Description:
The structure holds two protein chains of two kinds.
Chain A: H1 3-40, E1 44-47, H2 49-59, H3 64-94, H4 97-118, H5 139-150, E2 151-156, E3 165-170, H6 183-195, E4 198-201, H7 204-207, E5 210-211, E6 216-217, H8 220-251, H9 256-270, H10 273-285, H11 296-321, H12 324-332, H13 337-366, H14 369-372, H15 396-406, H16 414-447
Antiparallel strand pairs in A: 1-4, 2-3, 5-6
Helix pairs in contact in A: 1-16, 2-3, 3-6, 4-5, 5-6, 8-11, 8-13, 9-11, 10-11, 11-13, 12-13, 13-16, 15-16
Chain B: H1 2-14, H2 19-65, H3 68-72, E1 76-77, E2 84-85, H4 88-119, H5 122-137, H6 140-187, H7 193-224, H8 233-258, H9 261-269, H10 274-303, H11 306-311, H12 332-343, H13 350-386
Antiparallel strand pairs in B: 1-2
Helix pairs in contact in B: 2-13, 4-8, 4-10, 5-8, 6-7, 6-8, 8-10, 9-10, 10-13, 12-13
Amino acid sequence: MNLGTRKLLDRAFTALGFGSIAIMGLMLLIVLVPIVSNGISALVFRSTVEHRKMAYNEFHRGNQTSLDKEIAESDAARKPVYEILSGFEAELKLMDEDKQQEYKDKYDQVRTALRALLGPLPGESEPALTRLKYGQNRWEKAEEKLHEFLYEKKWDYSNPDVAAKEYFVSRSAGFEGTSLVRLFPYVEKNIDRMLLPEWTFYWGFITDSSVDSHIFGGIWPEIQGTIFLAVGAMLFAFPLGVVAAVYFTEYAREGFFTSLLRSANSTLAGVPSIVFGLFGLAFFINTLKVSESKSVLAGSLTLAIMILPTIIRSAEEAILAVPRTYKEASLGLGSTKWNTIVTVILPAALPGILTGGVISLGRAAGETAPIIFTAAVSVGSAIGLADVFSSPTPALSWNIYNLASEHEAASEIRHVQYGMVLSLITIVLLLNLSAIVLRARISKKLKG
Amino acid sequence: MSVEDTANQVRSSAFVVSARRRKWQKISKTAGESTLLLIASFVAVVVLFIFYFVARDAVPFFQIRGFSEFFTSTNWYPADEPPGFGALAIIYGSLMVTVGSALIAIPMGVTAAICLSDVIPFSVRQYVKPIIEMLAAIPSVAFGFFALVILAPLLQNFGGPILMWTWWLIASPFLLLAVIVATELFTARISNEKSRNLISRGLIAVLGVTAIGFLFVVGRKLQGIEILTGTNALNVSIILSFMALPTIVSVSEDALQAVGRELREGSYALGATRAETIVKTILPAASSGILAAVILGIMRALGETMVVWMASGNSSHIPNPWFNYLESVRTLTATIAGDMGEADQVTGSARFHVLFAMGLLLLIISFVSNFISERIIVRQRKVLSGQ
């Protein structure tokens, strides 16, 4: 091979390495950007008057007089709609039987679509489910529902070779020649007067509990559950881990037993997270019976075991990084070994130990599999501090899964899911960021 | 050790300490040390407990149903009457997504690690490291959500074009390089410069046209592929590979760093380019450490739950043909997570215990591979320090 080719191969090789790193960075962006941008829309969005009604009725938030004014304004815009409906119903009664049958189904569909848009129609009894009590809370959802109201979705099966294609048929065409035809252009034109959208910063998304399994309201119970679980895990794992690290670095003599302990540590680090869940179920709940069934305590203990190896390892590294001279000086001044560890080595290693602790805290907050069988419930209100020994809790990580995969209206509440993911990622990345900053400061300090 | 012993000696000779007090000190020291030892052994106890308690609930399954069905049948109907507990398809699903993610993660991870340790200057490196740390920090459920809500619809709606563009982006630089190198290799022996130039131009034209034709044909074929469901093995493999990458990168970077400067300098002094130094000298020296990194990374993919549970489609069958990554699969972890909710109410039944059997299988695999990778790392450290 001549020199040119070798140089070319060398360049190509370098490009390959840079390409891999670029792809990793790109992937990070591809994952984070949609989550952040959609997640923010859970907090900042154009809310309709229905949202303000909901906030007032369910959370006693907002100003009654201005709300009443808005309701009066939107009701005035909605009045013609209801008049057209009742006019059509009267017209329907006069038609002959066949015609009535023909229109009945279509008319019911129109009413359903309108109900989704504006909430219960006049003359209907108060629905039991909270989600049916209000119309669309969010303007962009209202626009979707408006499209559903104006056009009927149909599927084209005419070509059996390809998958069915969807197409839309205008609903108003089905009511040609009746008084209902007027309804569609009116709604389309006056939808914003009926719903009064305006930009809102809904901080209640963080601090409210959810209403009607996350259709309305916020995610405070989940955030609180995540905090309880992660902090609980730290309470168990951190002291244990630091003490074990002290033993490994200061006391352990290299030998069979120590290497056994070390490989136990790395084995524990490699155990799949779902197996921790199984262990937590079999040991803490079914054998030790720390609680009747799932509880925050059982979940915290399980998470504690999971993060223990990380804490031990990072604490070991932090202790080993303390300059040997510190220790020698302390021993030279006549203090005992234990005294040296407590008063000299641990304080010097503390920032490093804390860094590991903070990263582990983030990992405990983000982990799902260990808490599925030990601590997490799908729906629930925020629990008190006294209940952690006996009751399970919703948690961000579990509820993201639950809302995205198992919720009956998963596609209706994407904004809540995105908001939850954003909150979880924010918590975890903030913890990691503080760890990075902490570490940078330590290395600066150690450099002098 | 020596420092402390000297300190002790100095202390006892310099101060007059009564025999009683010295005895007391000794007792308290032993007591303190054994307490520390006790706490440090906690980890080992936990590992034993995990094995014991998972196995305790796994054994009844094999007592009730025996071994052969679990490992050889694809008949997974735990809720039916009579039930079927054949986990072969599920084990195969786990294997499939693990292999898929390894195929993506290993080349990327190793090249990225090489780039980090040998190519990028130190000052730039500290800006790249946070990318890897952030990838490692993102919770698995967030990746799962991304796979389910964003990637799956994308694959389902634009699967063909996505596959085609990926193919073009990845394959065309490699093919271009291959064409040039092949031409060089062919024409290197021709001594006459004029004819060499002529032949190499002709070769480049012929090979280039063939390569472009190949790119087009395969690209067309890929574009025509219609992905029926976005929640499939490919989706999961892509996401899992990005979750395994941080482990692979950081552990293999450590392995590359452990190869001393002398080897690098020796290779450069002999006139090798950087790529040649890395491929021919450093990679062989660090190969066992990289192998350990790969094993650890793969284990992360195998043990991952949320992503596969949310985005693999959870259908327990062996895809047809067996390498079809565009079909849904089901994995061990997802089965444990998904079936426990229903099986928990019937504690004591085979349906409950089969999930622990799967957990035990995962545990054993992770234990063995962890053990192997640890041995490899220890051995490499010994070899490198011995040289």
